[in-house]
Amino acid sequence: MTQKSRRKLRVWQELKRRGVPRVMAMYAATAFIVIEASDIIFPRLGLPDWSVTLMIILLIVGFPVAFVLSWIFDITPRGVVKTGALEDQDIPKESGGPLRRKLRTSDVVIALLLIVVIILAYPKIFGENESRLGSWVNRPAQPGDHPLRSIVLLQELEGAFGFSFLAKQCVGEPLVNK
């Protein structure tokens, strides 16, 4: 292991020891909830449109502040205390070997969920903007088309999207009984 990668590993271990990643994850989740709530609530309160933007800017500015505070202080059962240096604590030094942990069930579940999300999101992100029903639906009606083309289209919509009530009762019946 090179000196540079060893230094990066030590920095990451120090961040974990001080609880910084946990605080940053909690801050990000809380900020997301606050942004969503302010986006919904602020217009109802009659606040100007820029108030949501101000909230986002304040939360972005607060991120480094939370980082620094989580580096310096720890929340313990005794209250908020300053985090001590590594030398002050009675933690045995590392043996120099790589730290490995056992594979947990939660790791497997998270990996499977990530794979499912990627599989489901890939067509939405990188897919073409074509209809599920193909080019037959998107082409304009031709003079020689069958008059019940719209009924066939509604049946296709019913199968593809589940618009059974809308397709049959609201639109299909008036066209058939015409």
Strand and helix map with partners:
Blueprint lengths: L2 H16 L1 H25 L5 H23 E4 L2 E4 L22 H22 L8 H4 L10 H13 L2 H13 L2
Antiparallel strand pairs: 1-2
Structural summary, described in words:
The chain is mainly α and 178 residues long. Among the domains are: 90 residues, no CATH class; 33 residues, no CATH class. Helices cover 65% and strands 4% of the residues. A two-stranded antiparallel ribbon has the order 1-2. Helix 2 packs antiparallel against helix 3 and helix 6 runs antiparallel to helix 7. The N and C termini lie far apart (80 Å).
Labels describing this entry:
178 residues; single chain; mainly alpha; 4% strand; flat; 65% helix; two-stranded antiparallel ribbon
- Structural class of the helix and strand makeup? mainly alpha
Question: Main β-sheet: number of strands, strand sense, barrel status?
Answer: 2 strands, antiparallel
Give the amount of beta strand, in percent: under 5%
Parts with pLDDT < 50 across at least 5 consecutive residues = none
Mean pLDDT: 75
For the secondary structure, the number of strands is 2
Widest sheet: strand order?
Answer: 1-2
Care to give the gist of this entry?
The protein is mainly alpha-helical. Among the domains are: 1-90, no CATH class; 144-176, no CATH class.
